[in-house]
Design brief:
S-adenosylmethionine-dependent methyltransferase activity, 3 domains, SET_dom_sf, 15 helices, 14 strands, globular, Beta-clip-like, binds zinc ion, 37% helix, 452 residues, alpha+beta, SET_dom
């Protein structure tokens, strides 16, 4: 792995004109994990730490993505016949199909000979090659795009970068995950001539796919009326280590620029941190997420406090008869804690409370985005308190959802009461963030300034 100094040199080259002549940060070895970003002097709350463009950008190609989006300029394409005119089978607008930006990847995809999804759809002789097995079953009727070949595009783009940029990708950490090989195999199945026997190429591709899966962000990008998520590798943003209540906030300016600011005061020498989870998730939810996706157990101050700074984001109602108290996990930093009532002190096994938490989660999530905002508000205010403490993160997230829906353009009309509820929810969430010591985090800015 590259030394912090070598990584810093490559990051400087990548930042180019966005590099501050006297940056308030530096890259160094981190006590948290590998390398991290550190303050070279005191950084005040709200101060910009750095800005960076993506080293590489591509479609997320997730389930539910809008696939008829140009992979170069991201504009929404027609519902039919939106593939590249040069038969690379990528969704590309007419203008971009002959652009410099698309040329190399277009030629490479053509060389790999994409399988014709339309023809394969009726061909049952070779079931391994049918596009259903490539994970695009939903899109069969209307959309001849294979999400797996679309997803490999960002990795392919790395091969066409400048050597210094490729060196930067290679200097980044990659988790070792068997799933990444599966991703490549599925992509390879979309082509007749994928170079699967070229071992050096396949090894490099595996490494790049690992780097992307470990480090890439999903950055929202608004194009006119439609908003899409792009998959972007922002190397310096990715070097920041995780803290559940981080001291820096980041947001993506239309998918093209990551802006990182101090959410709180950061003393000289302090490590600049970000969060890999949602800030309002409960201890246990974050713990499970980090273990599953990043394979580590967080040891931050918040993770060591089972009241979570008195926010009780995990709290569920006590199951003991007649008790109206709340139960919270007894132990921290474990995936299977016991739970104890803060009133009657009854202890419950995790399995029982996990079932109860899942019930609350499913009941509430089944209502989100179904029906009107007015119905959601009634549900949150009248129904939820019967089975879920108001501090529980699932209920908090439902309120956040109402705020988002009411802040976006909508045809729904809201009365005085609805607007009051929205304001109350906002105040509650800002107070929660305050308790967590989150400072000027991105979520607070989104709520108070309504940047959406
Ligand atoms: Zn385009
Ligand atoms: Zn093309
Ligand atoms: Zn933590
Ligand atoms: Zn109790």
């Amino acid at each position: 792995m590259a030394t912090p100094a070598e990584l810093a040199r490559l990051v400087d080259l990548h930042l180019s004109d966005l590099r501050d002549p006297e940056p308030n940060w530096t890259i160094g070895p981190s006590p948290m994990a590998g390398r991290g970003v550190f303050a070279t002097r005191d950084i005040q709350q709200g101060e910009i730490i750095f800005r960076e463009r993506p080293l590489v950008l591509g479609p997320t190609a997730r389930k539910g993505s809008i696939l008829n989006t140009c992979v170069c300029c991201h504009k929404l394409l027609a519902v039919k016949d939106f593939l590249c005119k040069n038969n690379c089978t990528l969704p590309v607008c007419d203008k971009c199909s002959n652009s410099e930006q698309h040329r190399s990847e277009c030629q490479l995809f053509q060389q790999w000979k994409p399988k014709d999804l339309q023809i394969n759809a009726g061909n049952n002789n070779n079931s391994n090659n049918s596009h259903a097995s490539n994970g695009n079953k939903d899109g069969d009727d209307c959309c001849p795009v294979n999400t797996m070949s679309l997803r490999i595009l960002t990795a392919v783009r790395v091969f066409f970068l400048h050597p210094d940029q490729i060196a930067l990708v290679e200097a980044m950490q990659a988790n070792d995950d068997k799933g990444y090989r599966g991703e490549i195999i599925k992509a390879a199945q979309c082509f007749r001539n994928f170079p699967t026997t070229d071992k050096p190429f396949m090894d490099r591709l595996f490494r790049v796919v690992g780097v992307l899966n470990t480090n890439a962000f999903e950055a929202p990008c608004r194009m006119g009326d439609h908003e899409i998520l792009l998959r972007g590798l922002f190397p310096l943003t990715a070097v920041m280590n995780h803290e559940c209540t981080p001291n820096a906030s980041h947001y993506f300016d239309n998918g093209r620029l990551a802006v990182v600011r101090a959410a709180r005061f950061i003393p000289q020498g302090g490590e600049v941190t970000t969060t890999y989870t949602k800030i309002l998730w409960s201890n246990l939810t974050r713990c499970i997420f980090l273990k599953m996706t990043k394979n580590f157990m967080c040891d931050c101050v918040r993770c060591n406090d089972n009241t979570e700074n008195g926010t009780y984001l995990s709290a569920l109602f006590c199951r003991a008869q007649g008790c109206k108290g709340i139960v919270i996990p007894v132990q921290t930093k474990t995936l299977q804690p016991d739970w104890r009532c803060t009133t009657c002190e009854s202890v419950f096994p995790h399995s029982k409370m996990a079932r109860y938490q899942d019930f609350a989660l499913n009941t509430i999530n089944n209502r989100i985005n179904k029906g009107s905002v007015a119905e959601m508000i009634t549900f949150i205010n009248d129904m939820c308190p019967r089975f879920c403490p108001s501090s529980n993160y699932v209920l908090v997230e439902a309120k956040l959802n109402v705020i988002w829906r009411m802040s976006r353009p909508t045809t729904e009309e809201f009365n005085e009461d609805h607007l009051k509820c929205k304001e109350r929810y906002k105040e509650e969430i800002v107070a929660l963030l305050e308790k967590l010591g989150a400072g000027d985090c991105t979520l607070k800015k989104l709520i108070t300034e309504e940047i959406l």
